[in-house]
Amino acid sequence: MTDILGRKRCLTGGLAVYGIGAFVAALAPALGVLVLGYSAFEGVGSALMIPPIYILATMFFDDLQSRARAFGMISGLGGIGAAAGPLIGGLITTAISWRVTFLLQAAIVGVIVLLCRGITDPVSPDRSRRFDTFGAVLSAAGMFFVVMAILQIGANGLLVALLMMLGAGLLLWFFLHIRSLERRGIEPLLSTSLFKNRTSNLALVTQNVQWLLLMGSSFVVSVYIQVVRGYSAIQTGLIFTAATAGILASALSAERLAKRHAQRTLIRAGFVVTLVGVGLLLALVRETSGVLTFVPGLLLLGIGIGLMLTPSVNVVQSSFSEERQREISGLSRSISNLGSSLGTAIAGTILVSAAAKGNHSYALAMGALALIGLGGLAAAMFLPTNPVPQRD
User: How far is Cα 104 from Cα 84, in angstroms, rounded to an integer?
Assistant: First the structure.
């Protein structure tokens, strides 16, 4: 869609849709309308506006170091937003109302739209391109049912099996659909050739696991300290400032680190530091331990995530020529968003299935995230030193 409508137009259009969703959620009279605004409108808005950000950054900065600076700022602020959300949302919800948090989002979006007026699209839109609507529906529906199946684990085994089979069937149908379009010379939603780049594939795995660890850990710790410890939303947010500080410190150092170290070295180091942080959250936190026991683990978790967010994005984007940036950018953000969804779904499933066991459910959820983190580290070990752009 960035090719058809233009990168700037997708960015501002996505912001507009997101802002409308925030406004609808703020005024929602019932849960259904809240879901419509938050999940539907804001979800579509995010999908429209995030890929153009990375495409524009890739096109405006043509060397590894300058891209590292740009991606470092983007990824750093994205990670900070994820980590600082509990504090900001908790403060507003406790002091005023949860509805105001959505109104604040709408206001911020309005400001960003005004600031986007100075952006010039580096490539003109191509209205002759077609959009694979059927492929988009198949892929979205398939991933939806897979995530829903994970959420039902421990509640209804038969429903889990049915949802997983339905999701897998739709994803298989999607694959066969895009293969059929490619064989007929028609451009599909997602080109299968994107997956022929080994370096990009490995980096995409690390991206997925990074966001899975960030969102999964944030979910587990937030639920644990509010439900088991009885902390307020504001107290929860204050605890997470440690992770926010860690992400800020490491992500904003991306350009300097990229000059001194290979991208794969930073990704590997990030996973190691993150896993140490998860280990501390397991080793130090007890039902009777003080609030400060969360700080070392969250700080290292933030440092590790911030350390590897930028190089992972840089490796993926730099693995393809400029002509393919819109495709790989869309795939990259989808993989990252999927990691966020899976992190919350997997961690939430474990917490719910072991809810009666108190601190034990927390340990099980964090232990599962640590194992997944080891898988991400294993993928990072196979990354090459310098990615070479794939040519068509």
Answer: 15
Facing residues of 255 across strands?
none
Read off the DSSP letter of residue 200: H
pTM for this prediction: 0.77
**Long-range contacts formed by 168-176: CB under 8 A, 24+ apart:** 168/142, 169/142, 170/138, 170/141, 170/142, 170/145, 171/138, 171/139, 171/142, 171/143, 171/146, 173/138, 173/142, 174/135, 174/138, 174/139, 174/142
**Alpha-carbon distances of 48 from 2, 24, 174, 276, rounded to whole Å:** 8, 18, 21, 35
Of residues 39, 80, 366, 101, the one with CA closest to residue 225: 366
Tell me the C-alpha distance between 164 and 151, whole Å: 11
**Taking the C-alpha atoms of 95, 100, 105 and 111 in order, what is their torsion angle to the nearest 10 degrees?**
-100
CA–CA gap between residue 276 and residue 212 (Å, rounded): 16
Among 69, 60, 70, 63, which Cα is nearest to 120's?
Answer: 60
Sign of CA dihedral 146, 150, 152, 156: positive
pLDDT in tens, 301-359: 989 988 888 788 888 877 887 777 777 877 888 888 888 888 888 887 887 765 445 56
- Confidence at residue 180, expressed as pLDDT on a 0 to 100 scale: 93
215 Cβ contact partners less than 8 Å away, ≥ 6 residues apart = 82, 339, 340, 341, 343, 344
b/e per residue 210-228 (b: at least 16 CB within 10 A): bbbbbbbbbbbbbbbbbee
In the chain, which residues have pLDDT < 70? 63-65, 68, 76, 79, 82-83, 86, 154, 254-255, 353-359, 385-392
